[in-house]
Design goal:
The chain is of the alpha/beta class. It has 3 domains: 85 residues, 3-Layer(aba) Sandwich (Rossmann fold); 212 residues, Mur-like, catalytic domain (UDP-N-acetylmuramoyl-L-alanine:D-glutamate ligase); 148 residues, Alpha-Beta Complex (Protein-Tyrosine Phosphatase, Chain A). Helices cover 33% and strands 24% of the residues. The strands form 4 sheets. A 10-stranded mixed beta sheet has the order 8-7-9-6-12-13-14-15-16-17, sandwiched between helices. A 6-stranded mixed beta sheet has the order 18-19-23-20-21-22, sandwiched between helices. A 5-stranded parallel beta sheet has the order 3-2-1-4-5, sandwiched between helices. It is globular.
Length: 471
Amino acid sequence: MKKRLYFIGLCGTAMAGAAVALKQAGYEIDGSDEGVYPPMSTYLETNGITCRKGFSTSNLEPPPDLVVIGNAMSRGNPEVEHVLNSRIPFMSLPALIREYFIADRTSIVVAGTHGKTSTTSLVAWLFEFAGESPGFMIGGVPKDLREACRTGKGSMFIVEGDEYDTAFFDKRSKFVHYAPHTTVINNIEFDHADIFRDLNSVKQSFRQLVNLIPGNGLLLVSGDDTSAVEVSAGAHTNIETFGFGERNDWLALNTRYSEDGSRFQLTRSGNALGEFVYPFAGAFHVRNAMAAIAVAVHHGIPVQTIRDGLRAFRGVKRRMDIVHDGAVTVIDDFAHHPTAIRETLTALRLRYPGRRLWAIFEPRSNTSTRNLLQQDLHDALAHADVAIIGPINRPERYSDEQRLDPEAVASSLEQDGILAAHIPDVDEIISFIESRLQVGDVLAVMSNGSFGGIHGKIATLAGSIAMDNGG
């Protein structure tokens, strides 16, 4: 008889990805969630998985062999309570990844506050391009791999190492579950204000990850990031650094950016590896590429294969993702931290030189909705020509003293000569854009959520601009 696994919170990207991979491996899979809607509901249905809308104890009858409890679930959820009362075996998703996917394979963990989804996707792609058939778990959907999770057939499992907590019953960071052997730390900044007090508490979590890497493993660290270097000090494993600073083991030289991406010469401990071309422009993207190249070289992939794979990489959905390209260009991006917003806008400036750049941002994450990084948000949005700050997600969570003040940010940007506004209604944002949109504009929509379906509305508006101009 097939083993039945039940997922509470099935429609999350990582949960759904793991569920589909296990279904393909022969397990019986079903689950539940509150928000059951396309594209995730369609993705699950296409793969033969039923997701029940809403939570009910009847969904767990007869009892499954194992329940996977999602990170967003908490005590008081009727299914969680039934699992506990009935003593049905359960585990977190990270624990499931460790037991069912990684098992005895070599685990490659990519961590860092920013860039881990793109870097993990690139690492997985380079191994796939080299014919290694890796397993992987990624917090996004790589365009070249077409799925967020795969069991794979090779000896490697590549996993995005998230520092967010595991579950209501396990408050450790997810990445401590992944048996790290080769590990990347791209950067470390304060984020996830709902679970971390300050930057020091974030660093402490990364130190736990570092402490798990075996002596015969490898820790690849951005030597340009002070906090990443700090947490790596005293690691009981091999350490190599990458970046632009001359003391790095992996050093990028003669870097050039254009509309087509980045070109750079790469050396390892003074030995030249030649030129690499990456289809994404900017120093941030070059560091991601360097980390992925270093992982691939360490695991024996030929440099020329890496070079060819890097050039062919198409990126990740919702990471500088073009959703409309015509008289105006519309970009969908997952950026929700000031640093990520700044890097996205910087890269778009390089990609679309001379064009007017819009930043349309939804404060949604537990950090961006607070005023802890309010000045940083201003500084990031200042890289745009036009900045719109949308509605704050669940503003009632905070007092006036704690909550982000989007009016103040917009007013400050206006004083800096940037057309800026706080508009708390999506339809009003569309009206604002419609009255000011010009041919050639680039609109970057940045949110880690659905933003009230604004992406489709802006794409429709952009299409009408093309029609009005005979495109």
